[in-house]
Amino acid sequence: MKKSIRSTVVLVSICAVMAILLGLTNYFTAPIIKKNQEAAANEALLQVMPNGEGFEKMDISSFTLPKTVTEAYKEKNGGYVITLTTAGYDTGLTIMCGVNADGTVSGAVCLASKETLGKEKTYGESFVGKNAAGVEAVDTVSGATKTTTAYRNAIKDALNAAIILGGGSVDIRTPEEILADNLNTALPAGEGKFTKLFIVEVIEGIDAVYTADNGAGSVYVIGEEFIAVPTDTTSDNETVAAAQIILAASTSTDISLTDYENLPENLLSAKKTATGNYILETKGAGFGIMNDEKYIHSSGEYIRVRVSMTPEGKIIDTLTVYQAESENYGGACAKESFYGQFDGKTEETYQEIDAISGATLTTNGYLKAIENAFAAVKIFEGGNEQ
């Protein structure tokens, strides 16, 4: 019994001594480990801000920053190092960007990627010394358009984040978010859900009309002014009131495509309004290949476009009816900020639009669909019947 007690006391004593020794070891080594970790972190930060004199990690939870921002450090002299995660061909593209106190890029590097990096591995060097305008002008890398477009957009997000972290103000909303906010402010009863009215008549002074999905009314857009008109009421604004009358009286009839020769193969349907305007649905391939001037989408999916046009060949309105393009790239053809560019264009001017960044084939396919609409209207107006 005495031997057992003696063994227990010895074991407890050994454990106690070991605990003390471990505690002392941790006491002396913890600061060293922390210092080494900080040095390693600073080394990474110094890659994108070589002249940095010290970095402090920030709590970004109280800031409204671009969604790509995941981490931020403030540099002693007023600069910032921002870490961002975005998607190129795949998700998980992580970029670290340094922003000097004067708002220029001090450096940028790709920290992680699921993609095979070639020239774009050193793409960050292209942004050094650039401000927001300079970043926009940096070309994408041929053969890596998606990756480098995402990279460039991340750098722009970093510059905006630096402004916000420094106490400045910058609107980081997308055009779609700005539009949604304006519509909701104009007609709160619409509960934030609106659909753009496809306009088939020429209405002077009106840029767009949005109807509330719940039937609460409509919002007419004139420049930067958003005018709400509740259901079954007439607006006090003369321009809007005149537009209401025109839209309410509009009617259309189907056009038989078999009655005409040489119509574009990709013309899907056509109608004519009582006032002589045309409503056409046509298609063009986006992310595919061009073969003998005919666009063939590799997946068999085409972009479908609706166009309303005057008999003289001036576009009244445009809408993307369907698309199956790449998300965050060609899929932008479904955004009004893209297809709205065609409104008011003619056959001579319809190509004067901003292409979708990183989606040349989608843009070209869309232009082909618009081209088909112009060709069809000329045939309808020329009376080229069988």
> How much of the residues is beta strand, in percent?
15-25%
3D shape: globular
What's the mean pLDDT score? 87
Major beta sheet, strand line-up:
1-2-3-4-5
Annotation field: number of helices: 7
Total separate domains: 3
The helix/strand order is HEEEEEHHHEEEEHEEEEEEEHH
Distance between the termini: 116 Å
What is the tally of beta strands? 16
Are there runs of 5+ residues with pLDDT below 50, and where? none
Report the radius of gyration as a whole number of Å. 30 Å
The amount of helix comes to: 25-40%
Characterize the biggest β-sheet: 5 strands, antiparallel
Output the structural class. alpha+beta
Question: Could you provide a short overview of the structure?
Answer:
The chain is of the alpha+beta class and about 375 residues long. About 30% of the residues lie in helices and about 25% in strands.
Give structural notes.
- This protein has 386 residues and is an alpha+beta fold.
- It folds into three domains: 55-165, no CATH class; 185-249, no CATH class; 252-382, no CATH class.
- 32% of the residues lie in helices and 25% in strands.
- It contains seven helices and 16 strands.
- The protein has helices spanning 2-48, 132-136, 145-165, 175-186, 238-249, 336-339, 360-382, and strands at residues 55-57, 69-75, 80-87, 91-99, 105-112, 194-196, 208-212, 217-222, 225-230, 252-254, 267-273, 278-284, 288-291, 294-297, 303-309, 315-322.
- The protein has a five-stranded antiparallel β-sheet, with helices on both faces.
